[in-house]
Specification:
The complex is a heterodimer of chains A (about 400) and B (about 300). In chain A, about 25% of the residues lie in helices and about 35% in strands. Chain A has about 400 residues and is an alpha/beta fold. Chain A folds into two domains: about 5-235, P-loop containing nucleotide triphosphate hydrolases (Rossmann fold, 3-Layer(aba) Sandwich); about 260-380, abc- transporter (atp binding component) like domain (Coagulation Factor XIII, Chain A, domain 1, Distorted Sandwich), CATH 2.70.50. In chain A, the strands form four sheets. Chain A has a six-stranded mixed sheet with strand order 5-6-7-3-8-9, sandwiched between helices. Chain B has one domain. Classes of the chains: A alpha/beta (about 400), B mainly alpha (about 300). At the A-B interface, strand 1, helix 2, strand 4 and helix 3 of A face helix 1, strand 1, helix 3 and helix 7 of B.
Amino acid sequence: MTTVIDIEQVSKRFVIRKEKSLKERLVNFGRSNLHKEDFWALRDVSVQIESGTTVGLIGPNGSGKSTLLKTIGGIIQPTTGQVRLRGRLAALLELGAGFHPDLTGRENVYLNASILGLSRQETDKHFDAIVEFSGIEAFIDTQVKFYSSGMYVRLAFAVAVHVDPDILLVDEVLAVGDEPFQRKCLERIREFQREGRTIVLVTHGLDQVAEFCDRAVVLDHGNLAADGPPREALKVLRADFEATRKEEIERRQSVTGGVGLPIASVSALGLIGARGENGGAVIATGADLTVALEVRAETPLPAGWELGIAIATPLGTVLGGTNTHLLEAVTPDVRGTQQYSFHLKNLRLGEGEYIVQTSLSTREGTEVHALPDALHFTVEADGRSQGALYLDSSFSVGQH
Amino acid sequence: MTDIATSRAAALAQEPMRIAGPRPGFARGTLSSLKDILAHRELLGSLVRRELKARYKDSALGFFWSLARPLAMLLIYYIALGKFLGAARSVPDFAIFIYTGLTAWGLFSEVVLGGTGSIVANSGLIKKVYLPREVFPLSVVGSSLFNFGIQMLILLSATVVAGKFPTGERWLYFPLALAVVLVYSTALALLLSAVNVYLRDVQYLIDVIIMILFWASPIVYAWKQVAGHVSGVVADIYLGNPMTLAVMGFQKAFWVSGDGEPIPTHLGTRLGIVLAIGLVLLWLCQRTFARLQSNFAQEL
């Protein structure tokens, strides 16, 4: 494996100046340190990326993902440390950044391609393919200022994917265009992966990371929080999101004067109907399962509260769920602790591991407490079907 | 892993690692900067074309407008200064004299003014893609040269009409003077475009300075009119201005009727000296630009 991107202890400091004009700078000259504030967007981040891998950069807003991507792209210089690269790099940072509204689509294709590092000859060669990919043949000689935003983005993406990069940097741009076009883009990314190109992807679509990436890097306030297979990295990130949410709820609960949230929590007691094996619950596909929960209300929980459960994959993709509101269950005032059960009949899940999530909210729908990882169980099946939904299937010749 | 993927990885393994973005180092970076710019010359061409195509895109008269301004200025100075104030009486072929100076000055001011704003105007691109950022001021130089070419054609046609087409050795002054204009204007464009990112006041300040400098060179008045008023150190300072020398170089080349008029001694040598100084300045300005550009993306 060849290392194509080597990020060595990169830190990036932004100085936030509170003064902007010449006058202020002159007046405060010499004391300017008082009017500066340091902000570390990245702290000592080291990552090595091998040729042919697809890496997802994830993290909450403001965690430094885009800054890291820009240091890889050479757009921003790190304060300390350095980034070293091999091969041709193309950045899909913001689609159409190089478009000039007064030029026609055709002229912009050439301009944008040369910005991304394609020579005129190469562009000539790819021109028809670019236009065909974009699907806007009829408007190619129209000035782009008359384009709809969808057409704009289609053309820009078409140019970008026809540049022949070894490293492709993608920032939040996969969710563009209508569905057929999106599918086309994703197919193209798959093709890039097959061709051994390295892709670094910044996204908030965690499912996308689970689906596309071989590896995920989680950033948190500029620090490297996790780096590994998407599954583990996503777990870290989701736990982080959960902590933020909990803080938010606690803050609202601590508000005094009657408008604060009631203090209550939900805990999982266990799964009834599952065999316990090596510390994990196991059920056969199609079996019934009962989820036993306990609600503890430290301050009275007014009637009409909602308790919900959901079944999700270990990556956090929710497969389905239900709650007391949907089940039309009556939920009177609660004080102290009370136990409840959800009965799930005929659970036709495919082979694999699953998690049970649960959440408690008020009548108004505000979440009071949630457990995104309340219980685990494993489903066993006969291996005749794959995926989260078990298909009880057989095959025959003819139409019966 | 497919064959393509394996061979790509193998090919990449042959390549040396390079540092993302511009190379550090003040003096050492010169060569790599030059290489970078040379590698992007096609992009430079595209940017120049963009600038030219987009400028008068939706106007009915198109490129004519790039001539409208210098022609209007010619008319104003010719009538107001030449006829009303009587400058034309002491300067033979006053129209050609003024137009020669305006053409040279037009190139200089267009490069400096356009160049200063070029980085800020292209902030969208600079924040998104890494390119050697010098291409933006340089693309202004390119598009200005195109306009300059058109004006030169008009100037030469005018000399034909006047029956005083420049011939012979006087043409030697043209490349020398043009080089001086280009070197100084490019150096200023590079330096000011970078400084303008940090201090936006620069683009307004330079507007004023260009206007003052216009009157500090013998464009609408002749050198002999200055020589009558200044002498010694003041004259040396006046002649130390590279644009003054360049404008006089242009006049020496294209203003045939001015042959009998007084010019400073050793004009060719003086031009050569300021050109040499200008090249050093250009290098210094480029290095300053290279140093400042590392923070462009976050300051814009």
